[in-house]
Amino acid sequence: MSYEFQRVKYDDLNSRQQENYNFQKVAAHLADFGFNGIRLSDDWQGADFIACHVDGQTFLKVQLKSRLFIQKKYSGKDIYVAFIHRNKDKTEDIYVYPHDVVRDELLARGEKTGTLTESKSWKVGGGYSWGHLSKGMKEFMQKYRV
Q1: Among residues of the chain, what percentage have pLDDT more than 90?
Q2: pLDDT for 84-142, tens place per residue?
Q3: Correct CATH for 11-141 of 3.20.20, 3.10.620, 2.60.40, 3.40.1350
């Protein structure tokens, strides 16, 4: 018996399937950097998975998101956020960033315009996300692209 492999369309997956897809893609990519991804059955300390490095010393608590995202509830938890940005040309970039560092940098940038801190999503929901990365935001996030 043989199986004919066919690529799935991400947008055709339900939310749980998309989360599984994102975990597999991010974990496989992090393997190139010496990390083993261990999926958690619940959000333990805010993490969806633990990335364990082959050095035996480095462990990252990783929260999967579908986009660049900061949230007050992740503050002070030593959380990394990982997301896959799907470019217009159908390529994908994977970003993994320390939540609190990026939060502080984005809040400092946003203070100039007040866009982030004055938004309803930040004031009421305690979070803010970017559905698309502008050229400037891609430049800002470049150091977290893996």
Answers
A1: 71
A2: 998 889 899 999 999 999 999 998 887 655 678 888 898 899 999 998 898 989 999 99
A3: 3.40.1350
C-alpha to C-alpha distance for 106 and 114, rounded to whole angstroms: 11
Phi and psi at residue 24, in whole multiples of 5°?
A: -60, -40
Give the number of other CB atoms < 10 A from CB of residue 116: 17
For residue 69, what are the contacts with CB-CB under 8 A and spacing of at least 6? Answer: 81, 83, 127, 128, 129, 130
Q: Give, in order, the Cα–Cα distances in Å from 49 to each of 5, 88, 109.
A: 27, 28, 29
The residues spanned by each domain of the chain are 11-141
* Lookup: tokens for 55: 């050095």
